[in-house]
Write a structure and sequence with these properties.
The protein is mainly alpha-helical. It is built from three helices and no strands. 0% of the residues are buried.
Length: 115
């Protein structure tokens, strides 16, 4: 007990004020550090959620259109059934994939800007 009393007696008002200020600053940094960490975690969750949604949409478009039945296959002038041009299907699919990639990039940019 005498040891503690000697420390208190030896401390000046300026030193006591300095230590109180150090404790307050440490609390301030700790509180806002925690809030900043929570903000970063929430931002990462939103970004991950947006990415997952875009990937899910891209996977759905890559799965392609549903199989066509023989009734839905167009007939040419002679009455025989003709299949759609594969190059047109490839172009359409490529266009759709490009649109989805563009939409994903736009969504990610918007999510980053909103944070």
């Amino acid at each position: 007990m005498d040891h503690v009393r000697s420390i208190i007696d030896a401390m000046t008002i300026a030193q006591a004020f300095k230590w109180a200020l150090v404790v307050l600053v440490a609390g301030f940094i700790g509180q806002f550090g925690r809030k900043f960490a929570e903000y970063l975690i929430e931002r990462a969750r939103r970004k991950k959620k947006a990415t997952a949604a875009a990937e899910r949409a891209l996977r759905e478009t890559r799965s392609g259109p549903p199989e066509t039945s023989s009734e839905s296959v167009p007939q040419d002038a002679e009455g025989s059934k003709s299949l759609p041009d594969p190059s047109k299907e490839a172009k359409t699919k490529a266009k759709l994939e490009k649109k989805m990639a563009k939409a994903k990039a736009k969504q990610l940019k918007k999510a980053a800007k909103g944070d």
